[in-house]
Amino acid sequence: MEKAGPEREKIRDYRDLSVWKDSMDLAVDIYTLTRAFPRDEMFAMTSQMRRASTSIPANIAEGFGRAQRKVFIQFLRVAQGSLKELETHTVLSRRVGLLNEKQADDLGLRYEKLGKMLVSLVRSLERNGGER
C-alpha cells in the first residue's frame, strides 16, 4: 500500500497513515474541548465523545495490524461509523449548548475531511488488491 501524492513513500506501519495521524489529532482536540463541559456531563456526553474519538484511530491501527486487506477495510468502516457517532454527539452538544457554533462548525469541517480520507483509503484498498 502506498501513499498517494508525489512522495509515494511505502506505508510500513499504521503510524505512517495520514488518516491515522489526523484522527489522533482530532481525539486530542476532543479531549481538550470536553474538559470545558460541565462536570455533570463527565459520564454522559464527555465520555461518549471521548470514546468515539479514540475509537477512530484505534480501529485504523487494529485493522492495519490484522495484516489482511478485507479485515483492514472492515475496521476502516468501523472507524467511519465512530466518526459519524462523534459527528452526531457534536451536533447534539451544539444544540444543547455544550459547544458554540464555531466549535461545532470547525469540528464538522474536520469530520468531513477525515471521512473523505477514510472513504478514499477504503476505495484504494478495494481497487488495488494484493498485499495491504
UniProtKB/TrEMBL annotation:
Gene3D superfamilies: 23S rRNA-intervening sequence (1.20.1440.60). Pfam families: 23S_rRNA_IVP. InterPro entries: 23S_rRNA-intervening_sequence (IPR012657), 23S_rRNA_IVS_sf (IPR036583). It comes from the Bacteria. This is Four helix bundle protein. It comes from Phyllobacterium phragmitis.
